[in-house]
Design a protein that fits this description.
By secondary structure, this protein is α/β, with parallel strands linked by helices. It is built from 28 helices and 23 strands. Strands 1-12-11-10-9-8-6-2 form an eight-stranded parallel beta sheet. The structure holds ligand LYWDKB7T, 2-amino-4-mercapto-butyric acid (HCS) and zinc ion. The site of 2-amino-4-mercapto-butyric acid has 12 residues, from loops. This is 5-methyltetrahydropteroyltriglutamate--homocysteine methyltransferase.
Length: 775
């Protein structure tokens, strides 16, 4: 029999129950027992859904109040000292509030402390909390939560397979702190605790533990490859079967490492890397299970069950009951249930499968391979084939004019008419900005009031005209505040946007959007990625009326605000019937029209955000350049339709930029605002070494903390920046948008920022006066 299972299920809840309960708990509106009860109910519902669908095992250990990597840090007792939790660690019972303080710096109980760093999980839009590692670190089994959840599942009659980030990937994702050392030196200490965990799970009667090791799909130094052997030799035991799970790509040069490990089973991604199947099957040990990730865990398209059955049948014949089937990765990265989408048109809906539907697809496929398909399975197979045929032939997907326009674009279209140095002169004249001009990244606080108005508008309670008036009031308020703060280049504040990608998705043809298609982005925060199903066009201007109105309220330059083509692509569910680069260029052309319209409406500076440019990089370095070429070209295509005097800005944040600095320069944006404050301007070394030619606004304060940034500190940061980049090419701005902050925090922070810029100007004027006097 073919075992069917999943690597993990979305934990946030079909109605975002976990988000709502957790946020209420943080606010003090819900007690801990009720929060725990909500979580317990969700876990039970999710296990029930897996069992009802017919899966052979249910996934335990995929639940987290905040993040699954943080869960392992807590399990291992890797709680940084500043959280004052040594006693909790020693007692083997780290409190939930301690984990929340690690994640967010504060919790209903305990002293606030600087939160742990958060960063993107591989190439996803999910963020994990970075384990902090230091040379003297010790580890101990410091939480019983995992074991409690196993007991909970067993008591409810489920057969659990436990899922956990594996030891090598946990270290791989960690960051060394303090004195220099190699984090791999900690491996043996980490393994001692993993061994205890496995022993304890075996005592509970757990048969299978899935250790997630996606690090194996990346380029690994030799010592990290060897670490896998060391780790899994140490962890092998007679009483516990380990399923080593790899996903998000192929094993590539780690193939022999992975297939030599003494584990009972291996899971590989057959969606991202179908080409690896035959070589994996050839190398897998004669008694090992091979779990094939055949249902796409990263996208929402319905699976082609007939084609999969045909492809998998020979493997079934070879592997027999050693073949397992699963989605490619955890279903954390897709929304919960397409059936909740009552407003989505029936044809489009029939093309989609969310987490709930992917359970059914996995089970049906397993039963088809076993020749034990039920009538319902046969029906599902027929429905899938019909839907896919319909999708392939659908007139709504292809718009010939889009292909024609794309084919007619040439290299000239992705180039500004003149070089930066010449454009800069025209822009200086048009914009008349002071030295060290101040600006912000785009969004101002998304207050409850704004969201309530939007909700009322969506439900029909508030008419479009009234809603637009409300948004205009917000824009006017943001402009007035910025004027009072004496900021030099203003923004309209993005009040009208639910999200920087969803907002554009709602207005572009070729995109569909959902009502409940939430996916966890970090902690309790979710995003609702639009679905790109067809050729992309812009039926009407999307932002022009807001920017035009905002500009009418001030003499200062108003910056237009768009999300760039790569970020829209990266944060959407993208059609799988044409190359991603083609879809990206289509989006770029739609945005190009918007950029040109903004210019015609009198907007002299336009920011095209690309925070996801780095995240889109393939996980293997060998594939980077091809991606960067089309990503950069798409950005330039969107930006290059304007005259010299129009200043193009871009913005990037919370990514590792050093290794793509050449591509950032190739964007040829006149100004880039970039997150740097947490790295103490070190990032600018890369810009200096590269001789970055255009203007830069290195973020001078971290918008994720409510703490007030100090004027002197910002001045000193900018002085460090000026050692690397000439002052006349520097801007002063925060790290990122201010939508998650409150006005009470934003105003004093920006007042200090403006004061810092004025101090810098005064110092520059004084030093110039001194130079003149000494000549
Ligand atoms: C910059 N970031 C972004 C990423 N990805 C994106 N797609 N967008 C981003 O901005 N990736 C990297 C980072 C991640 N950062 C964040 C930061 C903040 C959030 C966030 O606050 N998410 C909100 C949801 C935002 C939103 O869409 N709000 C809606 C209201 C939604 C709502 O609650 N609706 C009602 C129902 C309405 C109805 O249809 O009837 C409800 O459910 O009750 C809005 O403003 O209109 C969050 O709350 O999680 C995300 C990522
Ligand atoms: N313009 C956006 C960029 C976020 S990365 C904002 O300010 O929120
Ligand atoms: Zn940002």
């Amino acid at each position: 029999m073919t075992v069917s299972h999943i690597l993990g299920y979305p934990r946030i809840g079909a109605q975002r129950e976990l988000k709502k309960a957790t946020e209420a708990y943080w606010k003090g509106d819900l007690d801990r027992a009720t929060l725990e009860q909500t979580a317990k109910t969700l876990r039970a519902d999710h296990w029930q859904a897996q069992q009802d669908a017919g899966l052979d095992l249910v996934s335990v250990g995929d639940f987290a109040f905040y993040d699954q990597v943080l869960n392992v840090s807590v399990l291992l007792g890797a709680v940084p000292e500043r959280f004052n939790a040594a006693a909790e660690v020693d007692q083997g019972d780290v409190a939930l509030d301690t984990a929340f303080r690690m994640a967010r710096g504060r919790a209903p109980s305990g002293e606030p402390a600087a939160a742990c760093e958060m960063t993107k999980y591989f190439d996803t839009n999910y963020h994990y909390l970075v384990p902090e590692l230091h040379a003297e670190q010790t580890f101990t089994l410091a939480s019983t939560r995992l074991f409690d959840e196993v007991a909970e599942a067993q008591a409810a009659g489920f057969t659990p397979k436990v899922a956990l980030t594996g030891p090598v990937t946990w270290l791989w994702l960690g960051k060394q702190k303090g004195a220099a050392f190699e984090r791999l030196d900690l491996l043996d200490r980490v393994l001692d605790v993993y061994a205890d965990v496995l022993t304890r799970l075996a005592e509970q009667g757990v048969e299978w533990v899935q250790l997630n090791e996606p690090a194996l799909v990346q380029d690994l130094p030799a010592e990290w490859q060897q670490a896998f052997e060391r780790a899994y030799n140490r962890l092998q035991s007679a009483s516990m079967k380990i399923l080593l799970a790899t996903y998000f790509g192929g094993l590539g040069d780690n193939l022999s490492v992975a297939t030599r490990l003494p584990v009972a089973g291996l899971h590989v991604d057959a969606v991202r890397a179908p080409e690896q199947l035959d070589s994996v099957v050839d190398r897998i040990g004669p008694h090992q299970v091979l779990s094939l990730g055949v249902i796409d865990g990263r996208n929402i398209w319905r699976a082609d069950l007939a084609a999969l059955r045909e492809r998998l049948m020979p493997l079934k014949v070879r592997l027999g009951s050693r073949l397992w089937l699963a989605p490619s990765c955890s279903l954390l990265h897709v929304p919960v249930d397409v059936n909740a989408e009552a407003d989505l048109d029936a044809e489009l809906k029939s093309w989609l499968a969310f987490a709930r539907q992917k359970l059914d697809e996995t089970v049906t496929l397993a039963r088809l391979l076993d020749q034990r398909a039920t009538n319902a399975d046969e029906q599902r197979l027929a429905d899938a084939t019909r839907a896919l045929d319909g999708r392939r032939d659908s007139a709504r997907i292809h718009q010939p004019a889009v292909a024609t326009r794309l084919a007619a674009t040439t290299a000239v279209d992705s180039q500004r008419a003149t070089l930066y140095a010449k454009r800069a002169q025209a822009q200086r004249q048009a914009l008349a900005l002071p030295l060290y001009p101040t600006t912000t990244i785009g969004s101002f606080p998304q207050t409850d009031d704004i969201r309530v108005a939007r909700r009322a508008h969506k439900s029909g309670e508030l008419g479009t005209e009234q809603y637009e008036m409300r948004m205009r009031e917000e824009i006017a308020y943001a402009v007035e505040r910025q004027e009072a703060l004496d900021i030099d280049m203003l923004v309209h504040g993005e009040a009208e946007r639910n999200d920087m990608v969803e907002y554009f998705g709602e207005q572009l043809d070729g995109f569909a959007f959902t009502r409940f298609g939430w996916v966890q982005s970090y902690g309790s925060r979710c995003v609702k990625p639009p679905v790109i199903f067809g050729d992309v066009t812009r039926p009407a201007p999307m932002t022009v009326r807001w920017s035009e109105y905002a500009q009418s309220l001030t003499q200062k330059p108003m910056k237009g605000m768009l999300t760039g083509p790569v970020t829209i692509l990266q944060w959407s569910f993208v059609r799988d019937d044409q190359p991603r680069e083609t879809t990206c260029r289509q989006i770029a052309l739609a945005l190009r029209d918007e950029v040109v319209d903004l210019e015609s409406a009198g907007i002299n500076a336009i920011q095209i955000d690309e925070p996801a440019l780095r995240e889109g990089l393939p996980l293997r370095q060998g594939e980077w350049q091809v991606y960067l070429n089309w990503a950069v070209e798409s950005f330039r295509l969107s930006a290059s339709g304007v005259t010299d005097a129009t200043q193009i800005h871009t913005h990037m944040c919370y990514s590792e930029f050093n290794d793509i600095i050449g591509s950032i320069a190739a964007l040829d944006a006149d100004v880039i605002t970039i997150e740097t404050s947490r790295s103490d301007m070190e990032l600018l070394n890369a810009f200096k070494d590269f001789d970055y030619p255009n203007e830069i606004g290195p973020g001078v304060y971290d918008i994720h903390t409510p703490n007030l940034p100090d004027v002197d500190w910002m001045v000193s940061l900018m002085e460090k920046a000026a050692e690397r980049i000439p002052a006349e090419r520097l801007w002063v701005n925060p790290d990122c948008g201010l939508k998650t902050r409150r006005w009470e925090e934003v105003e004093p922070a920006l007042a200090n920022m403006v004061e810092a810029a004025k101090t810098l100007r005064a110092r520059q004027a004084a030093s110039q006066a001194e130079d003149t006097a000494s000549v």
